[in-house]
Amino acid sequence: MKAPRMLCLMLSIACAGLLFSTHALSELKRNPFENKSEVINKKKITAVAESVASKKGPPRITSIIVAGSASLIMSGGEHYRIGERLDGYILAEVYENGARFIKNGRTIDVKIVDDKIE
């Protein structure tokens, strides 16, 4: 009779410990098992990638739909409406052969790309 009680007690303690440790780990601000140098390297890589992305030139426009406030452009296979952000540039205006963007308070006019092969 003592063996089944002891087994139940041990299983109860093990289950409680498992629940507590799972809850405690979910509230940690960082994973204690993660290598700190990996975290620092990930932050550096992200910072470098953002820096490179910010130095890209103006967006490349592949198509345009002029429809007043519903106008949009296509760039990189995605469509963008007036007011939306594209690589740090805000689409301000769309016209027949290009678009006007604003970045860091400066206005940039971009013409549509002509990829015709002659």
Task: Describe the fold and architecture.
The chain is α+β, with helices and mostly antiparallel strands. The protein folds into two domains: 2-54, no CATH class; 63-111, no CATH class. The protein has two helices and seven strands, in the order H-H-E-E-E-E-E-E-E. Strands 4-5-6-7 form a four-stranded antiparallel beta sheet, with no helix packed on it. Strand 5 (89-95) and strand 6 (98-103) form a beta hairpin.
- Distance between the terminal alpha carbons, to the nearest Å? 92 Å
Strands, total number: 7
Identify the strand order in the major beta sheet. 4-5-6-7
Low-confidence blocks of residues: none
Q: Strand-and-helix sequence, N→C?
A: HHEEEEEEE
Structural shape: elongated
Largest beta-sheet characterization: 4 strands, antiparallel
* Alpha plus pi helix count: 2
Structure summary:
The chain is α+β, with helices and mostly antiparallel strands and 118 residues long. The protein contains two helices and seven strands; from the N terminus they run H-H-E-E-E-E-E-E-E. It folds into two domains: 2-54, no CATH class; 63-111, no CATH class.
